[in-house]
Design brief:
155 residues; alpha+beta; 7-stranded antiparallel β-sheet; 3 helices; ASHA1/2-like_C; Activator of Hsp90 ATPase homologue 1/2-like C-terminal domain-containing protein; START-like_dom_sf
């Protein structure tokens, strides 16, 4: 069994709003890329058994840290489970020739009402060995911060 990485954040928006941002193409394209990356969704089918293909591009490709090319991570994501206002489960496979990035990583996004907001907990299981744990958890936390900025009311 592979490694498990986690991150959590309370977002000042109701579970329905957070869930909506997890299953909307434009929203996912806007908030999912962590700091230092941009994202483009090439295919979108938001239903159990459906999924999406996302190309994540490093804003500074000179570090050569991409999994698919020197400057990109390409990931095929399947929607394994969609429960409105409760959870979204992704099964992610990186396109890479490097066996350290092989395998299917499962990312579970759990939503729980918490006061005036939503506690969002992300659990990534079977994380490929080539992904540094601290960097991955920082990336998930960055995506959660982007998600909060995307759905929280202004003001």
């Amino acid at each position: 069994m592979g490694r498990t990485d986690r991150a959590a954040r309370t977002i000042a928006a109701p579970p329905a709003a957070v869930y909506g941002a997890l299953v909307d193409r434009a929203a996912v394209e806007a908030w999912l890329p962590p700091d230092g990356m941009s994202g483009r969704i090439e295919r979108w089918d938001p239903r159990p058994g459906g999924g999406f293909r996302m190309v994540l591009t490093y804003l500074d490709p000179s570090d050569g840290s991409g999994k698919s090319t020197e400057g990109t991570d390409v990931v095929e994501v399947g929607f394994a489970d969609l429960v409105p206002s409760e959870r979204v489960v992704h099964r992610a496979v990186f396109e890479s020739d490097d066996p350290l990035y092989a395998g299917t990583m499962t990312m579970t996004w759990r939503l729980a009402a918490s006061g005036a907001g939503t506690e969002v907990t992300v659990t990534a299981t079977d994380v490929p060995a080539g992904i540094d744990q601290a960097v991955h958890e920082q990336g998930i936390a960055s995506s959660l911060a982007n998600l909060a900025s995307y759905v929280e009311p202004v003001g």
